[in-house]
């Protein structure tokens, strides 16, 4: 079974600075998808960024980028120019690329990010 | 964009009663719906997966007779907590998958259930 590990329960960063959240995973599959989700105090899960394992290029979405190291099974999220609205719980998630129709997301335990004004 | 509407957002019920939570995909067909439970300051725990028109697949340790899931149409899935007890108090979230691609997991806004 796949597992996702987030070793940083809490992180804090000064506003406008850069912060990196760590995520490692364990899988025997070669093709899969990785995600970072944000859960603000409203509890609404919001997709931040997504990476396909077959793509070597790291995904980027504006201030958010990932460092995907497939061999090391590492998938870290970098947030640049941190803003107060980035304060949230961040979850790393894994999904098999198999297309059987019911593939589920496996979530890490989350990292609570605090932005210091 | 894809929207999943989840209702109610909060519900308080008496111990022993049943509560139904609805998730509707508003602008797409949800081929698969996932139901999660989230305890305070913890991650999402998958409870069950349902495909339209078929029985839900429950995760190990989840009581299927207590948590009834119905996915009768491509736009509606319901979770009914039967004979609720205080230990069932939690935050429940649904997630709908669009089509069969690697993308497109859209989450509902969650339901906070309190059993008194």
Written description of the protein model:
- The complex is a heterodimer of chains A (about 120) and B (about 120).
- Chain A is mainly β and about 120 residues long.
- Helices cover about 0% and strands about 50% of the residues of chain A.
- In chain A, the strands form three sheets. In chain A, strands 2, 5, 6, 10, 11 and 12 form a six-stranded mixed beta sheet that branches.
- The radius of gyration of chain A is 14 Å and the shape is globular.
- Chain B is mainly beta and about 120 residues long.
- Chain B has strands at about 5, 10-15, 20-25, 30-40, 45-50, 55-60, 65-75, 75-80, 90-100, 105, 110-115.
- In chain B, strands 2, 4, 5, 6, 9, 10 and 11 form a seven-stranded mixed beta sheet that branches. Chain B has a four-stranded antiparallel beta sheet with strand order 1-3-8-7, with no helix packed on it.
- Chain B is globular and about 40 Å long.
- The relative contact order of chain B is 0.34.
- The interface of A and B includes residues 42, 43, 45, 99 and 112 of A.
In short:
The complex is a heterodimer of chains A (117) and B (116). Chain A contains no helices and twelve strands.
Low-confidence stretches of chain A: none
Run of helices and strands of chain A: EEEEEEEEEEEE
The biggest sheet of chain A amounts to: 6 strands, mixed
Report how far the terminal alpha carbons of chain B are from each other: 37 Å
Q: Output the number of helix runs of chain B.
A: 0
Principal-axis shape of chain A equals globular
Structural class call of chain A reads: mainly beta
- Measured as a percent range, the helix fraction of chain A is under 10%
Radius of gyration of chain B: 13 Å
Of all chain pairs, the largest interface belongs to: A-B, 23 and 22 residues
